[in-house]
Amino acid sequence: MSDLALKSFIDDFVGGYSREVCCPKCAGLSRIHFVGKIALRGKCEDINAAFAESPFEVRIDEWEDGEGCTVTSFPSEGDEHPDYYGYPRKSSFIALCTKCHERSLIRGQLRNEDLYWSVQTRHGVLWARNRRELVRIRDFIAGVDRPRGPLTNRLPAAMLKGSNRDEMIKLIDRVLHNGPGH
């Protein structure tokens, strides 16, 4: 893994699993973090430095051959969580609230209803894993020449119709500005 790829991976790992959910305590924005282990090849001192600013607890164990480290997120949650390499085999997450700082353990699959970013429309509810994805959806809907791809297949045709474009962009912009539920 190149230094840039390692930095990008660690930024995603530390910054959250790129999913944002509602805090069960205050309904604020909580970022999801994996609970478990990852194996990272590279210099252990570089990996330690990258995780120095982590908002959550990590344990870093250097491999015997010195070629990398095993990083355990939330080691106080116990070792019942299996190793994973990018994706968990068993879903366990910690949600850290950016508002009240509540720490919630989530076991099992995340449902759309758990996601923080939702837009109520007359064509149904639009869900996004995070703010960045919602902006990408808005930009896709706003585009005149849309390439076929994953978003084309995921969004209902009514949301993509040119006659609904202004309405959809307005609703998404309102949610991006005020937050969901406002």
Summarize the structure in words.
The protein is of the alpha+beta class and 182 residues long. It has two domains: 111 residues, no CATH class; 62 residues, no CATH class. 30% of the residues lie in helices and 26% in strands. It has six helices and nine strands, in the order αβββαββββββαααα. Strand 4 and strand 5 form a beta hairpin. Helix 3 runs antiparallel to helix 6. The relative contact order is 0.15.
State the gist of this model:
With 182 residues, the protein is an alpha+beta fold. The chain is built from six helices and nine strands; from the N terminus they run H-E-E-E-H-E-E-E-E-E-E-H-H-H-H.
Helix content: 25-40%
Radius of gyration: 19 Å
Classify the beta-strand content into a percent band: 25-35%
| Shape type | elongated
By secondary-structure content and strand pairing, the structural class works out as alpha+beta
Uncertain stretches of 5 or more adjacent residues: 81-89
Could you give the count of β-strands?
Answer: 9
Q: What does the largest sheet look like?
A: 4 strands, antiparallel
The termini sit apart by 43 Å
Strand order, main sheet: write it out.
1-2-6-7
* Helix and strand pattern: HEEEHEEEEEEHHHH
Total count of domains: 2
Number of helices: 6
What's the mean pLDDT score? 78
